[in-house]
Write a structure and sequence with these properties.
With 327 residues, the protein is mainly alpha-helical. Among the domains are: 162 residues, no CATH class; 41 residues, no CATH class. The chain is 73% helix and 0% strand. It contains 13 helices and no strands. α1 runs parallel beside α8, α3 packs antiparallel against α6 and α3 runs antiparallel to α10.
Amino acid sequence: MRSTFAVRIGARWGMPSFVSTLGSIDTAVIGGFLTFFLVFHVHDSVGRFTTLFNASKDGRGRILSIAALAHTYLTRDRALRLIRYLNAAHVASYVGLNDVYTFDAFFQPLNEVKCLLTEEEVMRMKCINMDEGASAFQELVVWSYNGVAEASKQGLVSDLVAWDLRFQIIRMRESFQEMHDIISQPIPFFMDHFIVLISFIYLPLVAVSQGLNAGTGENVYWMKDVVQGVIIFLQSLVLIGLKALSDMLSNPYGDDLQDLSVLTYIKSTWESTNRMLNAAAPDTDLEMEEELFSKAEDIGSAWSRSRFRAEAEEKESPIDIDADKRV
């Protein structure tokens, strides 16, 4: 933009008319290269954003699945401990991804509010140095895995349930580990550096070219100046905006407006898991179930219980209650 302004000011101060012919330089080739690489850069950044989002949501979903299994099959104390460790691992998995999520500013405040770890357990996290790498959340995963193993050895859960719990824990670990793997490997430096280099060459060149095309000498008009200025502004806005947008999307963890809602994920997971551990369905008997079934919308005569009852009465034979279950 400043190059365009400088050229237009020079044009009004008596720049010869023939100078405007210099603006016919073809910059489309450089612009095509820049657009080509920018499209790939944005595509890679959107792909990273989507992958990181899916990893965050998948890890959260695994914790909810484990909470349902823990409430159903584990004793109360073991279920509470397991979910406490997994929620702590959820928080710890984000620590170290950037300077916003740190042990002191992120994990500790959440731990005090949600009571995730005891003082001795927090000291263990300090020894591991949670701000460096993913070792801390992996340690919490091991604690959770050991809890399931102990329950299985003591015969508190069946081998099938223990396998399912271990499977969900390992898949959760893989999702959270994927976040660290992707963040630790940024978009290739060559791609980023090449885009910046082409932009540094192309934008000033096209600004000068368009400024000269607006006319010099006697062919100077305010309307052409305004139109060319708007075109250069929009072109620069699109190219620089795409580069800035792709850089933001490549790392969606932080305190920017477009970043993922990490605190919402953590808070909703903690609330949901604890609510699931306290789930209590009211008891019903066969009479109540039959009454609810009879009041429900008809599902078709072929599947109606009354059909089997009528056929049994006609044959004067006992009603096969298990027939409904088989159907």
